Each structure stands twice: as C-alpha cells, then as structure tokens.
Amino acid sequence: MSFKITQGLFQFDFTDHYAVLGVPVDAQPNPIRKRYMQIARRLHPDSCKAETPEDQKLASDLLAKLVSPAYNQLTKDRDRAEYTVILKTMAKRLVQEKDQLKINSESAKKLLTSQNFDEDYKKALEELANQEYESFSKTLEMIGQISELNLVYLLRKQSSGQSLTGSPLAAKPAPKAATPTTPTVTPTAAAVTPVEEKKPAAPSVAKSASKIDKLYDRAGEFMKLENFTEAVVQLKEAIKLEPKNSKCHALLGMVYLKQNQASMAKVHIGQALKLNPQEPVALKAKKELEKPADQSSGKSKDKAGKQDNSGGGLFGLFGKKK
C-alpha cells in the first residue's frame, strides 16, 4: 500500500517526516524517540487494538512505510543534518512563493496571522498530534494538517529572519575589540585558595548509573517492538559509559542472537559471563545458542558409536560441554 499526501510540505514532493511523527520541526532526538515509541505501541501488530483486519493491516503499513522511515531519518545525526539543510532551503522557497501556497486547514490559516507564532505553533501541533493516530482512516489527513502547520511555521520563521533553532539567521560577525593589555600578577598562596574551592565537583556515579539504566530499559522497549537496530544503539551507548556492565553485554548478546548474528552474540554473552558468571540474561542466551547443537548432537556419532560432543553448529561458540 502506498500513501499519498498533498497538503503542506508534501505538495512539493517532499516527505515531511516531522509531520509523520507529529513533532515540531526543531524537535531534538529524545522527544522524537519518545514520540516514536508512543506511535509504535499504537501501530505494532503485537499491541495494536484495531478492531478489523483492514485496520490492522493499515496500522502495520503506516508503521513500516511512514513512521519507522521518519524515525530513522530524524534520529541519525548525519541524516537529520542533511534533512535540516533541505528544510532551510525549503523555507527560502516558501517565502519566494508565498502567494501561490495552498493552505486549507484552519489551524494553519490562524498561524499565518498569529502574533506569537512560536507558541501558537507548538500548541496547535500538540492538539493535532494527539489525534494523529487515534483513527487510522484519518491519519493521512492529520499528517497533512500538521505539515501545513510546519509549512506556515517555516514561512514565518524565514520571514522574521530566524533560523529553525530560533536564533537570528547568520550575519557577518562584528570585529572583535582589542583586548587591553594588563600586567601579569603572580597569585599569592592566599589568592590561590578560593580558586581551589571553586573546582567543579566530580561527576556523580549515581547519575551515570541512572543514565545506563535508562538506556538499558529503552533497549528493552525497542526489543519488544522488534526494532533490534535501535536496541543495539542504546546498549552500545550504555557500554561506552560502563564497559564492564554485565547486564548490558548480556542483553546486547541477546539482541544479536535475535538478529542471527551468532559471532557478535558470542562476544558479548561471553563478556557478560566473564564479568558475572551468574548473569541470568547471558545464561539464557547461552542456552539459546546451544540449542541447535543439542538438537543435532544425537544425529552425529563417532566411529565408536558415541555421540560427537565436539561442539558442532553454534554449540562450539562456548566450547565443549562439561
């Protein structure tokens, strides 16, 4: 199934990923990720509450063909940067062609003449986003209305001389004033003492642990949605913060196992068990890796009629069974 939207930025043969996700055009990765999770739970076959097979199919198609591609585009730094450049170019075009623009929705028309367009844009977008995926049959219409809001917002931003981040558009920097020369004074011991007292405190271990827990939990959510690629990203970030975290290595091994990447699974499951031999997720993943060998071991016997326990298949990843 293909989706056709002709409102807002879509009228320029441009896919408005921000409208698809129902987030502002200046949204940062964390809010984008949070919004994606909300929509994915609504559309994913395992959690979708569609009443008919047709709606179930529509929800699945919306997730696969619109929502997930939008999320991937806006959460990868390089892709988002390129997309932002295109949006800025689009904003300039909107100013040049403002008399020819097609705007149908009332919310977008109001935004055209709004005194406080930044605040009104966010409010109007939030209202539409709350309805965007409530009725799947109206989702494309809602995306179109949000894209019209985005179009008008970009137009107003560009016309007022602001960038997408709200700062003035780039201008030539003013020449730096000459810094007056002052004599160098060697600080005395008494003068040094206050400086030492103002040294920043060491980073909190608790804060780091809290961030790792959030990344771990987020990876678990992505696993439930079968978005294993994003789960890997979250766990790798957690391992960067704490390389010896057995839980993160174990779950990463399990994710790789789900992706049929046995070699990578072996590395991280082995590391998890090295750090904590009783790590439950790692032990479970190890059993999963051993299953094919256990099932096939009875089929292969040596010349003496004994079972071959040399570790064929995936069993060999962890060595011979004791």
Mean pLDDT: 80
Number of helices: 13
Order of helices and strands: HHHHHHHHHHHHH
Number of domains: 2
Report how far apart the termini are.
53 Å
Largest sheet: none
The appropriate CATH architecture of the largest domain is Orthogonal Bundle
What's the CATH topology label of the largest domain? Helix Hairpins
Overall geometry comes to elongated
Radius of gyration using CA atoms only:
28 Å
Polypeptide structure, described:
With 322 residues, the protein is mainly alpha-helical. The chain is built from 13 helices and no strands. The protein folds into two domains: 8-160, DnaJ domain (Helix Hairpins), CATH 1.10.287.110; 204-290, Tetratricopeptide repeat domain (Serine Threonine Protein Phosphatase 5, Tetratricopeptide repeat). Helix 4 (77-96) crosses helix 7. The chain has helices at 17-21, 29-43, 53-75, 77-96, 106-112, 117-131, 139-159, 189-197, 205-224, 228-241, 246-258, 262-275, 280-297. It is elongated and about 70 Å long. The two termini are 53 Å apart. TPR repeats lie at residues 212-245, 246-279.
